[in-house]
Write a structure and sequence with these properties.
Layout lengths: L15 H13 L4 H18 L17 H12 L7 H8 L3 H14 L3 E4 L4 E4 L6
Antiparallel strand pairs: 1-2
Length: about 130
Amino acid sequence: MVEDDDTVSIKVHMPQWQKKRWVANADQLDMSQSEFVRSMVQAGRRGFWESSEPPEAGSSDATPRGNDLETRVLDVLRNSDRDYLDWEELLAGVTDDIEEQLEATLDSLQETNQVKYSGRNGGYTIQDERTN
């Protein structure tokens, strides 16, 4: 029987180019491949549940931390050196890394030819038959 803290192995099938990219990314972050994949999955789950209906509290997919935005707001308030923060300060605190996340996501989508940037057209678009 597997205890909650016991580790188990899983197998994932992916193209070779993706495995090479993940190995390189893990090396850059000084992480094992297992740590890297586990971190990506957890980050993806957080991002997924922020943009859609979260699972029911009693389900096995529920995150133990609860509402991630609530957690982030409370963390910002607790870690502030002041007793009160205004709206702008709270907003900055909970969105501090959104630009980096957006840039990394767009880079990834461009690498996999799902999105393309056009300076001439002034923005990003989905890479499909409309843009070929």
